[in-house]
Automatic annotation (TrEMBL):
Membrane-crossing residue ranges in chain numbering: none
GO MF term set: oxidoreductase activity
Keyword Oxidoreductase: yes
Domain NADP-dependent oxidoreductase: 28-327
UniProt keyword Oxidoreductase, yes or no: yes
Protein name: Aldo/keto reductase
CDD domains: AKR_AKR14A2 (cd19151)
InterPro entries, sorted: K_chnl_volt-dep_bsu_KCNAB-rel, NAD(P)_OxRdtase_dom_sf, NADP_OxRdtase_dom
Lineage of origin: Bacteria, Pseudomonadati, Pseudomonadota, Gammaproteobacteria, Enterobacterales
Keywords in alphabetical order: NADP, Oxidoreductase
Amino acid sequence: MVFQAQKTRYQSMQYRRCGESGLKLPAISLGLWHNFGDTTLLENSRQLLQRAFESGITHFDLANNYGPPPGSAERNFGRILAEDFLPYRDELIISTKAGYTMWEGPYGDWGSRKYLIASLDQSLKRMGLEYVDIFYHHRPDPQTPLQETMKALDHVVRQGKALYIGLSNYPAELAREAFRILNDLGTPCLIHQPKYSMFERAPEEGLLDALRENGVGCIPFSPLAGGQLTDRYLHGIPPDSRAASASRFLNPEQITDEKLSQVRQLNALAESRGQKLSQMALAWILRHDTVTSVLIGASKTAQIDDAVGMLANQHFTAQELETIETILAQPL
């Protein structure tokens, strides 16, 4: 049966202008880091994408190495795009990235012009696209001149292979220099994607200020700290959780008694607000004017529903914010 999106899909989502650009992004964006590779049933991935779009989520975020295996998330997304979403292509923001290891040899990693342009060409073929809306450099390269990397990003925009440029994982001062180079080239940076959550607050140490001062949007990833800021770990480590799965992104050693105490206190505050902990954690990030959108992952459609449901209560009282800071300041 041909997918037909609900006509009401734009009624409940909020859209925010990205930095000083003309582009608006949904407050919630869907990342395809996990659950879209070859180890996941294609039909489950399809259901997630359909539910997201019907909820007003127009932004799907990928990278060349997403899977597993690397490249499979883009390939599977391309298949679903061709079968379900081609009539809606102009309603979608599709982003991808390059910067981590993708293929063997000296030209399949980091930030050289050779790698970035070749990687984007491969990504476009896997997804069956003529262009992506946003192309990111995924991480800084300490050996390639920043000018070379930024000129490569400028080049793919001038080629028409990307509409906008983004950066990810760049620290504040390096981001400032990258913004300056891109502005001089005539292709301003649209957006920055840092790791940011209640448990990972490095962006507050200068990066958010740099983005605000340069008119660049922000889309944090891992806003739920790998699932720690959900109700999954309130009673310890479930056997089917990420922390129990030998994941390199979350291990049992991170789920300490002190961390669980924080999670339980935060959960109690969320319940007093009439929210789930995951919803409060997303709202806490979106309270920043600099943040355009928050990037979620999902393995079930209910997780998308929960994230969108957060939009009904994004306000924090001064007392609530103070309580959160008190909880987070407790020693671990």
